[in-house]
Amino acid sequence: MNALLEHEENSIHNTNNWFHKYQDYLGEFVYGGIDGAVTTFAVVSGAVGAGLDKKIIIILGFANLLADGFAMSVGAYLSSKSVKDNYNKHKAVEYWEVDHLPESERKEVEDIYRNKGFTGNLLQKVVDTITADKDRWVDVMMKDELKMSEETKSPFMMGFVTYISFISIGIIPLIIYVWDYIGTFPGNLFVWTSIFTSIAFIFIGFLKTYVTQTSKLKGILETLILGILAAMVSYFVGDILEGIISA
Questions:
Q1: Using CA atoms, how far apart are residues 89 and 82, in angstroms rounded to an integer?
Q2: How many Å apart are CA 237 and CA 186, to the nearest integer?
Q3: Which of 64, 104, 141, 204 has the highest local Cβ count within 10 Å?
Q4: What is the total count of domains within the chain?
């Protein structure tokens, strides 16, 4: 019985660890999904406004989906990697200064904590405690002197999650057109595409509220309105350009 309970506790613990690990990348999933849905829906809307053939819409949609998704994921990866590299570069400098300029670095720690209100013997005890451990010393300098915090998320995972989200949410505006190409869709393609995409915006807007810590209604409406505006602009631009070119 005890072994069974222990097994259940371990399973719950492992599940929680898995959830918290990937919860850290919810922001990348949300913003990748928003960008994927908005840009792909904008391409479809512009193509419909221009009166392009359904095959052209599918080609343009998938070209945008794959190329923009890859570009966005690479951007997320490089941005995160740059932040990590910059942090590690400054951290290496701080280690060198602690090794070669200990008195100067100790004085900086003392000044930092004096400015926080520590004085007298308490100040000296705090400084002694911090400078007794090199790693702790460097961490204090990174946070309190340079105002830098370490990025714990993997740059690769940030790029990967962004790409997966961009593709999985961004493909929704194309589903109806692919369906109609393979068989025959019994309805107005653009109307149903708009409905499906609106549902995607509502879903991703709901998830966004967990990242931004805003009200669910506000998060959903912001994302939905953003998508509608992007689609309207693309549709009317496509319609206007089609009229100019055809004149």
A1: 10
A2: 28
A3: 204
A4: 1
Instruction: Give Cβ neighbours of residue 226 (< 8 Å, ≥ 6 apart).
Output: 34, 38, 201
Own/partner pairs for 140-146, CB < 8 Å, 24+ apart?
Answer: 140/109, 140/112, 141/94, 141/97, 141/98, 141/105, 141/108, 141/109, 142/87, 142/90, 142/91, 142/94, 144/112, 145/108, 145/112, 146/90, 146/94
Query: Contact, 49 vs 239, CB < 8 A?
Result: yes
30/203 Cα distance (integer angstroms): 10
3-state helix, strand, coil in the chain (%, to 5): 85, 0, 15
Which residues constitute the domain of residue 153?
A: 25-246
pLDDT band per the 50, 70, 90 thresholds, residue 7: very low
Residue 114 structure tokens: 């004096």
Confirm whether 7 is domain-assigned. no
Q: Dihedral (C-alpha) 59, 61, 62, 65: value to the nearest 10 degrees?
A: 160
pLDDT at position 243 = 81
Q: Work out the mean pLDDT of the chain and round it to a whole number.
A: 87
Give me the residue label for tokens 């790029």. Answer: 159
1 assigned to some structural domain: no
CB atoms within 10 A of CB 146: 13
- What confidence tens digit (pLDDT) does each residue in 35-54 have? 899 899 999 999 998 889 99
The answer as to whether 18 is a domain residue is: no
Structure token pair of residue 236: 């009317």
The verdict on residue 218 lying in a domain is yes
Predicted pLDDT at 229: 87
